[in-house]
Specification:
By secondary structure, this protein is mainly α. It folds into two domains: 63 residues, Winged helix-like DNA-binding domain superfamily/Winged helix DNA-binding domain (Arc Repressor Mutant, subunit A); 138 residues, Four Helix Bundle (Hemerythrin (Met), subunit A) (Up-down Bundle). Helix content is 70%, strand content 5%. It contains ten helices and three strands; from the N terminus they run αβααββααααααα. It has a three-stranded antiparallel beta sheet with strand order 1-3-2. Strand 2 and strand 3 form a beta hairpin. Helix 2 crosses helix 3 and helix 4 runs antiparallel to helix 9. The longest helix is centred in the last third of the chain and has 25 residues. The radius of gyration is 19 Å and the shape is elongated.
């Protein structure tokens, strides 16, 4: 029998550092194009350079950061092409998720969706913009989780850092502290309903709503 007792638990400090950097980017504290160095982040976050180095490597792999010759590691610019690709990919994932989950919907699933809707509504009511972003992503994450497809869920989780940054841009474009409550009420009502075509049509409209304003913002 193999002896695993000598194996050490992997150090996950870097993942916490990556989450902090991601949050700083999403909040706008670390702005697009800003140069990031191990020394700067190590001092700012109060950790050694090793987890910072691993965190930067991870965020480079997600595309949230870019490495440019002679310029070092920088926060990615959210240009038109990137946002258009993100929009199309996100819409495709969400459509697929609903197509998979529609025949297998249960009251337990829909109860969870209603719970997430309430969390989002509370955050909007309290004008908690950061909490609303988290709650909105959690609401949209429901269909990917409920679909039960591990590859679909992995793709959703991979684009989450980009979506967080996009949502900040979206709020700035609309000059409001959080997402539209009415739009998500319609989204949930359709998700609870009986018409898959109506749900898919709303996803397309929902994803593209406000896109022109965001594109103007990143010009």
């Amino acid at each position: 029998m193999n002896d695993f007792s000598k194996l050490h638990r992997p150090d996950t400090l870097w993942s916490g550092v990556a989450e902090q950097i991601q949050s700083l980017i999403a909040s706008g504290t670390l702005t697009p194009g800003m140069k990031l160095t191990e020394a700067y982040l190590s001092k700012a976050l109060g950790v050694s350079r090793v987890p910072v180095r691993e965190a930067l490597r991870h965020l480079l792999s997600t595309g949230l950061l870019v490495s440019e010759p002679y310029k070092g590691v920088r926060v990615r610019h959210f240009d038109h092409a990137h946002l258009a690709q993100l929009y199309a990919y996100r819409a495709g994932l969400e459509r697929m998720a609903f197509q998979i989950l529609w025949p297998i919907k249960t009251s337990r699933m829909t109860d969870e969706l209603l719970r997430r809707q309430q969390v989002l509504s509370d955050a909007i009511e309290q004008r908690d913009s950061e909490g609303a972003i988290v709650a909105e992503l959690d609401l949209h994450g429901w269909c990917h989780e409920a679909a039960g497809n591990e590859f679909l869920l992995a793709d959703w989780e991979r684009i989450l850092p980009h979506l967080q940054c996009y949502f900040v841009l979206h709020q700035r474009a609309h000059q409001r502290p959080g997402p539209s409550r009415e739009a998500h009420d319609i989204y949930v009502d359709l998700a609870l309903g009986d018409s898959l075509p109506a749900m898919l049509a709303h996803i397309d409209a929902h994803m593209h709503q406000g896109m022109n304003k965001v594109l103007e913002l990143v010009e």
